[in-house]
Structure formats: C-alpha cells, structure tokens
Amino acid sequence: MDVISARDGYIDRTHSRILIIGFSVAFLILLTGMAATLGSYPISVLDVYTIILTGPDGASEAGTIIWDYRLPRILMGILAGAALGLAGAVMQGILRNPLASPFTLGIASAASFGASLAIVLGAGVVAGGSLIVGNAFLFTLIAAALVYGLARYKGVTPETMIMAGIAIMYLFSALTSFLQYIGSSEDVHAVVFWMFGSLGRSTWETVTVAAVLIGCTFPLFLISARSLNTLAAGDEAATSLGVPVERLRIGGMAGASLLTAGVICFTGTIGFIGLVAPHITRMVIGGDHRFLLPGTAVVGALVLLGADSIGRTIMAPQILPVGIMTAFLGVPFFILLFLRRGRNYW
C-alpha cells in the first residue's frame, strides 16, 4: 500500500506541475495580447489576436503597427526572459548555488565591456551597425571561456567556478569604468543607456536569432535534467551514479553562456531575470529540473514581458528601460526570499 500511495502521490504532483506550467503559458498568451495594445495607436485585445491570427497585412494600419513594431518587441521580451531564466536555472543547478546567474558570474559585465569598447573606441570584430552586437556577443563568450579556464586550472568545482566568475566580473567592470572615464559625454551616455537594457531595438531578425538559440539549447538542457537532479545530491553521489559531473558543468556553462550572449547582445544587460525566475518557479513546482526548466522559461518570459509593459505605461509616453524595471521588481522579491527562506536551500 505504501508503494501504491507513493506512486499515486508522484503522479498527482506531476499532474499539478504540468497544470501550473499550462496555466502559466495561457497567462503569457493573455499578457502578450494586453502588451500589444500599449501605445499611442489604440487597438483592443480582441483586434490584436485577430490581427495575429490572420497574419501580416500591409494594407491595414493596425496590422502594420502590430507586426512591424509591437510584436517584435513583445516576442523578443518573451524569448529574452525565457533564455535568461533558463540560463540562471542551469547555472544554479550545475553550481548548486542559489545566487549563480549569468550576471553574478561575470558574463554580463563582459558584454557591457564589449559594447563599451565599440561605442567609445569604435573597435570590434565586425563593422557597420553590428559592431556593438558583435562585440557584446564575443566578449560574453570570452568571459565564459576565462571562467572555465581559471576553474579548470584549480579543478572544475562549484567553488572554483564561482570564484573565477567573480574575478572576471570585477575585471570587466573595471575595464568598462575605464572606458567610461576616457570617453566623451555622448559616448558615456550611450554606454549607460545600453547597460540599462531595452527591448526597443528588437526586430524580426533579432527575434529569429534568439528563437534559434533557444530551440537548439533547450532540448539539450531537458536531456540533462535528470543528471542535474542527481547533481543536487553532491558531486560524489552523482559520480557514483554515473553522472559525468565535469562534462555536465562544462556543457551547462557553455549552453547558458551561449543563451545569455545571444540575448543581451541585442537587448543590453537585463538583470535579475536569471535569479528571480528560477527561484519563483522552484518555490511553486519544486526543484525537479524536468519541470523546473520549462517552468522557469515561462516565468522568465512573464516577468520580463510584464516588467517591459509596466515600463511602457508607468511614465507614458516616456518608456523606462526594462533593465530598470526588472531591478525594481527583483530587489523586493529577494528581500522577501531572504526573510522567509530557511537555512537550507537544496
């Protein structure tokens, strides 16, 4: 009877987790329609869904506004939130640290330096309008490689990767500050605005790149979900059960870094999503990565799209950068989390 009741309890928990994720997706669809109504041109939610379902219509002014201006921004918000949430959940899983994220491990600082280098000195690996994007993407990957290299020298453990990430974060932060010091006031203003994070530069091309990156990495993360669950018991226990711990950490770090690079090179630095989304999801549906990863992707999309929608309305017609809004939303959440959570996390 105990075995049967345990099995029934597991089935019930699985069903409830699937339902929660399903309701979250439905709420995301609703929020998408509401976000598409925001702007100087009035469009109802019903009209938004009708325009989206009927496809692009160049003859309709409302259709042009939705498909050419509002929908790319909304979809980029959804994809960026999902990518950053996934990256944070994977990094927290492979490092067994609730504060691990692309931003606490120096990846975002490297992207800021790459963008600053392009803005202040005009130096980079590509030319033309893609200079800032190319620099941010390249230096994000360089930071990930440096973290791995430093950790590899002392052994790829959670402690060494976190310490290496902190060192890289301070290094690129110092380099960015130096560029701001020597740059002109116009260049410094451009750097600061880029570091705020914004979805205003979104196009169908950027949406496509982000969608391809998520489509390539998300299935690989799901395949590794059981290994991430086992890793939560510790390196020795995971190794004894046949989990290639070091390879899992390297692959997880590479995938999370690629996701982060593919998003923030277009949007600028958007903080707290990689920290907040995994925590919210873990509190609601638990720490099983088979459900945590897709749940975190949906929650990250909800948080970022919601923050951008608030930023577009709170001081309308002026639009607050979404990076500022996520910080405003993230700090109170973490204070609440600090006050309510017990000593043990995993």
Automatic annotation (TrEMBL):
It holds the Pfam family FecCD. The keyword Membrane applies. InterPro entries: ABC_transptr_permease_BtuC. The keyword RNA-binding does not apply. CDD domains: TM_ABC_iron-siderophores_like (cd06550). The chain crosses the membrane at residues 18-38, 74-91, 103-126, 132-150, 162-183, 203-223, 256-277, 319-339. Keywords: Membrane, Transmembrane, Transmembrane helix. PANTHER family: ABC TRANSPORTER PERMEASE PROTEIN MJ0876-RELATED, FERRIC ENTEROBACTIN TRANSPORT SYSTEM PERMEASE PROTEIN. This is Iron ABC transporter permease. It comes from Methanoculleus chikugoensis.
